[in-house]
Design goal:
about 170 residues, mainly alpha, about 0% strand, elongated
Length: about 170
């Protein structure tokens, strides 16, 4: 199961790269077309906006898995173990609730916009709002798995990744 999830995360990271590259090509290409040839792609702005939305939500999934979001882990980690576990379960429970709100709202938006189409690309608007479903299901799985690990005692602290501190530690600087 772990290797399947790692493959899923690798696929998400590749999709993020695809979205970023697509945005660069579409926006830069449209700028060149407008200034050099006095024309442009009508779908460029709309599709690059969609890629940005998808990249943001998919990136949030990856960052959640890697504990890269902002946090004050030193406060929770300074608490005694039972209180720390209680705070972690409570925090993850609140995050699951927020994820549920995103998931439910996205489901409504997908179903309402199933027969609506984007003006420039002609793509179904449900594709744009479908990212909330992908985000909601993925983050719910990550958060529920963490709650299970906390309740079974296999996880009792969350360490926020600090890339600068990790690089200094790796270089031997204290």
């Amino acid at each position: 199961m772990t290797t399947l999830f790692q493959l899923y995360l690798r696929l998400l990271k590749g999709f993020i790269v695809f979205c970023l590259a697509g945005m660069v090509v579409l926006v830069f290409g449209n700028v060149v077309l407008r200034y050099a040839f006095n024309s442009g792609l009508t779908m460029s702005e709309e599709f690059s906006r969609w890629l940005f939305v998808w990249m943001t939500f998919v990136g949030a999934i990856v960052v959640l898995h890697e504990n890269g979001h902002l946090g004050l882990d030193f406060i929770v980690n300074a608490l005694p173990r039972p209180l720390r576990r209680l705070c972690l379960v409570l925090a993850h429970g609140l995050m699951v609730y927020a994820t549920w709100l995103v998931l439910a709202g996205s489901w409504v938006l997908v179903s309402v916009n199933s027969n609506s189409y984007a003006p420039a690309t002609g793509l179904p608007m449900s594709l744009l709002f479908g990212v909330g479903l992908v985000f909601g299901l993925s983050t719910a799985a990550i958060l529920l798995w963490r709650i299970w690990l906390i309740l079974t005692g296999r996880l009792d602290r969350i360490t926020i990744i600090d890339e600068e501190a990790a690089a200094l530690h790796q270089a031997g600087v204290k």
